[in-house]
Write a structure and sequence with these properties.
Helix content of chain A: 40-55%
Oligomer: heterodimer
Mean pLDDT of chain A: 95
CATH superfamily of the largest domain in chain A: NADH-ubiquinone oxidoreductase 51kDa subunit
Distance between the termini of chain B: 44 Å
Number of helices of chain A: 26
Distance between the termini of chain A: 81 Å
Number of strands of chain A: 20
Order of helices and strands of chain B: HHHHHEHHEEEEH
Strand content of chain B: 5-15%
Radius of gyration of chain A: 27 Å
Radius of gyration of chain B: 19 Å
Largest sheet of chain A: 5 strands, mixed
Number of helices of chain B: 8
Helix content of chain B: 40-55%
């Protein structure tokens, strides 16, 4: 059986080196969810059309997300014997230009190029930076994402050629106890956000009585603004499945599940394909690689409930019930799915395991900082110049992430929200905080699963807290009173503040309520739901006071407290705003100054946009907090 | 109906029979079955509840209880042109709620509803994973990046 694996590996490596030392050009198209949304499908079509038009041949690979989503759609071209060059923000014209320059004219179209993947600079890549030297990549370390954007995620041979399943083979050659010991030494902590040592969970489950045990990969990913797990599965499904096998072997399970949001169509499709390929290669089923270890993997659809990120709620959902959490203990490691000992690990935790088993614990713990080993992926989004999927060693500061990698916001920085609706909002004074589990917690936030949203001065802290609380309130399962009623009442207070109906005493009421909900809720959702409120209260109290006392929104972010004005000096009387206003709130004859009736205005922003971007208009419309007008 | 002991698939209409083929009839399959039914019919109808109930031998109430728990499932027929406004955090800070208001205002409906003439279907979704393109609106599976209120108005007019 082991021979069969080695044979498959040798074959895959041969095919891979033929591809990389290729005889024909290879064209890579970034086809993750972000790439597809940005138009990767039409890029693919244009590539084919250009090749057909000139009678050219090339291998076209559809790869996962390589990280810098702001550059999508990306197209990379690798000519025989030359380094691969990446071209960004492709459209049909650029695709044609680049391909013709490279394939017909012997040039590189360097003015369109973003970076190249060569080891060093050469005459061919003159004027093009190396990928790892670009500002967005310089501070990143790609460990779990190492294959994303480089291999065809639907081809198991690509994964095998890049040392895929070597980690599993190494694990199977040792006792499960040694594997657990290795993960302990590596210092791996749960990447779902809480940071519980992975080996502890495993040890408890391994020691639990019973023959039937389960391991579940948690890809519920309910945080609105996080896409790390989806991108990892779309770009490299086998690494997560290999991790699931390793975890199964370590705890003594023979059945694994991937619990995945049913809206992740592309990821589900890739997992299905990957599982079928694993069966073909003897990597699933009975007696895997001749080790005596047997394992099966099933996909389980998630219905898209945030609370199902919580372990007991997730288990209820897999069992076909409402996704409601239950009181713990017993912990799932003792009594989980169908009452059997169950381990639930996050996608990224599992995706990290093959690396640890392949390179050893010492190699892994060299990355990161003391007590916080390894790397963490984040989806860095919001008001930054270079949003995307990033991976950094733990211990990297927020400033490095937001400014060096993300390029910082255009307008002055205001805050960064980590951990999504369960996390906290950190102000400028925390920018030098290292991204480590304890440091984030001490600042009132959490590491979280990897959502990182940057906001600038245009975002109101009250509005942001209201947004997150609105989300958790809607997602509260309703089982326990503090969460069900508490989040609702907190939401009411925030609504009042955001609409200018608040009173100064509301702020202390909100604070008390938030503390109560945090302390008394049944599960993690309720216990962490007040975090965005508590942290914004801590760091942006003056803004709350402005809403409560003066009934203004200093950031002009709360819609109900904003008024639109037309600057008579700039208004060209073009009537564009009159036409787009859905409520006929703007009046004015052609070539005369227009006026907005604040009583009719619904603050939909249509007039603002048209006045700013229409060539006839004079950028005369502004909006500001109501009181500053009077 | 509780007395009905026939094995479900034989009694189910052909389209449900096909749908249920890949399943064993265990409770744990409920959510996946609901997902398949919604993919096939666009929503979970009373008829669907009845058929799933027979197949899994669970009460319709229990099935509705599970289905209504998850935001994914809907219980009325969707409109023809599907409009999904992303309400993820990145989209929110880039003005997603204004887009959502504009669409609702224009169509005269709230999110989660189909327009009265059945031509439009307006949903808010939590995150479609294209945060770098925020704010995004998905119209019939086509992603519109960096959407603006005015471009939404034009888009709706073009579908009218």
């Amino acid at each position: 059986m082991m021979n069969r694996f080695l044979e498959a590996q040798t074959k895959a490596k041969r095919a891979w080196s033929e591809l990389t030392a290729n005889s024909e050009p290879v064209i890579y198209i970034g086809s993750g969810t972000c790439g597809m949304a940005a138009g990767a499908a039409s890029v693919g079509q244009m590539v084919q059309e250009t090749l057909d038009k000139h009678g050219l041949h090339a291998r076209v690979l559809r790869v996962g997300c390589i990280g810098p989503c702001y550059l999508e759609p990306l197209m990379d071209v690798k000519l025989p014997g030359k380094p691969r060059i990446s071209y960004s923000n492709m459209d049909s014209t650029k695709v044609r230009q680049v391909l013709e320059a490279l394939l017909l004219k012997g040039g590189t179209a360097s003015e369109q190029a973003f970076a190249h993947f060569g080891e060093e600079q050469g005459p061919f890549t003159a004027g093009i930076p190396r990928f790892q030297d670009t500002p967005v990549m310089r501070h990143q370390v790609r460990m779990v994402l190492r294959n994303c954007g480089h291999i065809d995620p639907e081809d198991i041979d690509h994964y095998l050629a890049n040392d895929g399943y070597v980690g599993l083979a190494n694990a199977l050659a040792q006792s499960p106890e040694t594997v657990i010991e290795m993960v302990k030494e590596a210092g791996l902590r749960g990447r779902g956000g809480a940071g519980f040592p992975t080996f502890r969970k495993w040890q408890i489950c391994r020691g639990a009585p019973g023959d039937t045990k389960y391991v579940i990969c948690n890809c519920s990913e309910g945080d609105p603004g996080a896409f790390m797990n989806r991108s990892l599965i779309e770009g490299d499904p086998h690494c997560v499945l290999e991790g699931l096998l390793i975890a199964g072997y370590a705890i003594g399970a023979s059945q694994g599940y991937v619990y995945i949001n049913s809206d992740y169509h592309l990821a589900i499709q890739r997992l299905r394909k990957a599982i079928a390929q694993m069966h073909e290669h003897g990597l699933l089923g009975e007696n895997i690689l001749g080790s005596g270890f047997s394992f099966e993997i099933k996909l389980k659809d998630g219905g898209g409930a945030f609370v199902c990120g919580e372990e007991t709620a997730l288990i209820a959902s897999i069992e076909g019930r409402r996704g409601m959490p239950r009181f713990r203990p017993p912990f799932p490691a003792i009594a989980g799915l169908n009452g059997k000992p169950t381990i639930i690990n996050n996608v990224e935790t599992l995706g990290t395991l093959p690396n640890i088993l392949r390179h050893g614990a010492a190699w892994y713990s060299r990355h990161g900082s003391t007590g916080n080993a390894g790397t963490k992926t984040f989806s860095l989004v919001g008001k930054v110049r270079r949003p995307g999927l990033i991976e950094v060693p733990l211990g990297t500061t927020l400033r490095q992430i937001i400014y060096d990698i993300g390029g910082g916001p255009w307008k002055p920085f205001k805050a960064v929200q980590t951990g999504g609706p369960s996390g906290g909002c950190l102000s400028e004074e925390f920018l030098d905080l290292p991204v480590e589990y304890e440091a984030m917690a001490s600042a009132g936030s959490i590491m979280g699963s990897g959502g990182m949203i940057v906001v600038d001065e245009d975002t109101c802290a009250v509005d942001l807290a209201r947004y997150f609380l609105g989300f958790t309130q809607a997602e509260s399962c309703g089982k326990c009173v503090p969460c069900r009623v508490g989040t609702y009442q907190m939401g009411r207070i925030l609504d009042d503040l955001a609409c200018g109906r608040g009173k100064p005493e509301d702020i202390s009421k909100l604070q008390n309520l938030a503390e109560t909900v945090r302390r008394t809720s049944l599960c993690g959702l309720g216990q962490t739901a007040p975090n965005p409120v508590l942290t914004t209260l801590r760091h942006f109290r003056a803004e709350y006071l402005a809403h409560a006392k003066e009934k203004i929104c200093p950031a002009a972010g709360c819609k109900e407290l904003v008024e639109y004005h037309i600057d008579p000096g700039k208004c060209t009387g073009c009537q564009r705003c009159v036409k787009v206003c859905p409520t006929e709130a703007i009046r004015g004859a052609r070539s005369e100054t227009h006026v907005i009736d604040p009583n009719l205005c619904i603050r939909c922003k249509a007039c603002f946009e048209v006045c700013r971007y229409d060539t006839l208009a004079g950028n005369a419309i502004t909006y500001s907090s109501r009181r500053s007008q009077s | 109906m509780g007395c009905d002991t026939r094995t479900s698939t034989s009694a189910a209409p052909a389209e449900y029979r096909d749908l249920f083929q890949e399943f064993k009839g265990q409770e744990g399959e409920l959510i996946t079955i609901l997902v398949r039914v919604q993919e096939r019919f666009g929503y979970i109808s009373e008829e669907s509840l009845k058929q799933i109930s027979r197949f899994l031998k669970l009460s319709e109430n229990q099935i509705f209880g599970v289905a209504s728990f998850f935001s994914k499932f809907r219980f009325d027929a969707p409109g023809t042109t599907s409009i999904k406004v992303c309400m993820g955090t990145a989209c929110h800070v880039h003005g997603g709620s204004q887009l959502s208001d504009a669409v609702g205002w224009r169509l005269g409906i709230n999110f989660g509803q189909a327009s009265r003439d059945g031509r439009f279907d307006f949903q808010r979704v939590n995150c479609i994973g294209a945060c770098a393109l925020a704010p995004v609106v998905v119209v019939n599976e086509q992603v519109h990046a960096r959407a603006m209120v005015t471009s939404m108005q034009e888009l709706l007019e073009s579908h009218e």
